Amino acid sequence: MSLLLLQDTDTTPENLEEIVSEEKTLSIFNLIMEGGLGGQIIIALLFVLLLIGLYIYFERFLAIKAASKIDKNYMNQIRDNILSGNIEAAKILSQNNKTPVARLIEKGISRIGKPLDDINTAIENAGKLEIYKLERNVSVLATIAGAAPMIGFLGTVIGMIIAIHEIANSGGQIDIKMLSDGLYTAMTTTVAGLIVGIIAYISYNHLIVRTNKVVYQMEANSLEFLDLLNEPV
């Protein structure tokens, strides 16, 4: 009997440690599933917003990256063709370069022979169209960055309402297990909303920076083209 008691006392602390470790370990999936229907709906909505935001980011990132690539000798070739009077070759060269800069220059080349102000206006209008194309759907990222945390806070409010409702129905006897659904909903939705909002915010600002670089590139090459037209032949 004494040996059995010693064995029980040796194994009991280990069993307790295992039980405690199991109780402290809680996966994200369990947090979501134990957050109640309201929390699951909020999490699902935030997950959809995250997928939309990531799709827009990578689609726009690749498009802007392609738009920023231009042959370093492009403007030199345009200069040589225009100064030599070979306008058609300059236009064909611009058509073969599928970039916003090349499309602006092509618009300017098509207006050669008209007053310089008309050429400048045509390039500016074409530039606005190119900027619009570059920024397509980027505003959705800004909307997600602002809406996601608010949706998460909505889940927090729903969770607190559930918790208060459980307290009211408990007759003054507060049981933490009874409040767990509401508290899980409050915490998980807040964290999820902030994570989606931060990702969308960073993605939005990165795309804006990349877009501005392309815009500056278009402005620099447009000015160089207009200066070329002012050069004496």
From TrEMBL:
Pfam families: MotA_ExbB. The lineage of its organism: Bacteria, Pseudomonadati, Bacteroidota, Flavobacteriia, Flavobacteriales. Belongs to the exbB/tolQ family. It comes from Lutimonas vermicola. The chain crosses the membrane at residues 37-58, 138-164, 184-204. It is a multi-pass membrane protein. Residues 97-219 form the MotA/TolQ/ExbB proton channel domain. PANTHER family: PROTEIN TOLQ (PTHR30625), TOLQ-RELATED (PTHR30625:SF17). Keywords: Cell membrane, Membrane, Protein transport, Transmembrane, Transmembrane helix, Transport. It is found in: Cell membrane; Membrane. This is MotA/TolQ/ExbB proton channel family protein.
